[in-house]
Amino acid sequence: METMTLTRAKLCAWLVGTAAALSANVALAATLTADAETVCKGLIGGADAVKIDSATLQSPSQLTVAERGPTPSGRITPANPAFCKVLGHIDPTDPKAPPIRFQVNLPVEWNGRSLQYGGGGFNGVLITGLALPPAYPFDKPSPLARGFVTYGTDSGHETRPGEPPQVFALNDEAFENFAHRSYKRVRDVAVALMERAYGKKPDRMYFMGSSEGGREGLTMAQRYPDDFDGIFARVPVINWVGLQHAGTRSGLVTMGAGWINPAQVKLVGEAVRAACDKADGSDDALVQNPVACKAAFKVDALRCAAGQSGDQCLTDAQVKAIETLHATYKFPFPLANGLDDYPGWGVSGEDIPAVGPTGGWVSWWLGTAPPAQPPAPNNGIAWIYGAGGIQYVFARDPKLDVTTYKVEEHKARLLEVSKLMDSTDPDLSRFRARGGRLVMLEHMADYAQSPYAGIRYFESVERKLGKAETAEFARLYTAPGVDHVGSGAPANVDMLSVLVDWVEKGKAPGDLEVAEQKVEAPSFATLRALPLCRWPAWPHYKSGPVTEAASFTCAP
Fold this sequence. Notes:
This is Tannase/feruloyl esterase family alpha/beta hydrolase. GO terms for molecular function: carboxylic ester hydrolase activity; metal ion binding. Keywords: Calcium, Disulfide bond, Hydrolase, Metal-binding, Serine esterase, Signal. Belongs to the tannase family. By secondary structure, the protein is an alpha/beta fold. The protein has 16 helices and 20 strands. It has helices spanning 8-16, 19-26, 32-41, 172-198, 212-223, 240-252, 262-276, 290-296, 316-326, 361-366, 381-394, 411-421, 429-433, 451-465, 467-471, 495-505; strands spanning 4-5, 45-47, 50-58, 64-65, 76-77, 83-90, 100-107, 109-110, 113-117, 149-153, 204-210, 230-234, 329-330, 341-342, 437-443, 474-479, 512-517, 526-534, 538-541, 552-555. Strand 11, helix 5 and strand 12 form a beta-alpha-beta unit. The chain is globular. The two termini are 39 Å apart.
């Protein structure tokens, strides 16, 4: 693909729009740096609702690794080339709504492609497009360094310190921007900026997102099927309404006697491994087939005998809490696309250590103290998200006691939110017809959202379009033992290259390979690797070191 360069000539062609101006400035033969800086500064300004607030040429930067971070990849700031950093906003229609803020990074040397980054949680933070994208190997050049234009948005609101992350949902325009409009509008702004800066539109457009960003990726395929050539959706929070309610239910059942302390979480994690670790033929402290393990593991075996208590057994209330987590959440009426439930969570990875959003039950479900009302900082993230969602999104009553909330009393609002937020439409025929390619990845030890929601969605696409037809443009992979953010087991894979090869070379991916890497530059050594199997296959041990992918094969 042709490499494009920011030049003063292209800036003048954009500003003046005449051949004479173009010829005169080519003759200047200015240095690349001077030309790029001029083009970059010339982007400032705007018309109508779109405003470019600043545009500055950034010098090349080196890779750095922080000592600490909320996630393994979050510790890494990749090396980036010279680029024009564009910051801007889109004014709201409702004067009470916040603007949509965005950042677009235009590399001096462009490969003709672009990559939009998705957000996370309830967003409210500007996604810069400068970090590693989801699942990305630590030792690979960043997308920007590979020549991609990269960009992201805050989705139309900014979360303020000390403020619940869902407050923005009280404003209709802000919530619709969060649901889908902001990603579309920023995508269109990015295309316009590329055309102004380089003199042409991008040849190929990609989207990569994880968690809420994964939902955004599926939203783009469903709502705006003509906008992207390749989409990667990791651990997507589809069936969003169901997730908020199921997460809240799991918090309610751990109030008081149902709460499970960290020592008991370790007890459960060890019991799951004892029941299922060796089922694939290896003894590697990893449950390779968590679907079969969910049926095999019986939490009742850990129930305390009459009169007993302590960290080596579970009370009746704790057993009930775990059974609730594993069980389907049922609505009394259907939501968007006919869904009336949310699948329960699975087993494995319960005791992955907690560091912010990294980890298993303690991070997401239980916290280090029982759920409080209102939610406290030491509660599980799912309770903080779910209870706040009930108050600000569904009931729209910040003072609501969540323990008194009844779904039936808010049916109209649930249906309204589901129509906006639930990226569960299985009809991807338009996306497929225009040549789009989709890769989904579920982490099977994910307690932020149920991996079974994504699996169910993929299977609904297969039912709608046919298995053979779906295989022409979509893939679902499952990674055993990996938590929501990519810890616990091998999780790193270059899905950007997978998408580019599929979209541009017609090379459809088969089973892949994931690595667990040491967060230590510059080598980022691989600690262990596994096959990344296409659903519904799992890694099965053959022979050799359990730290090497070649020791396993994918099979149902």
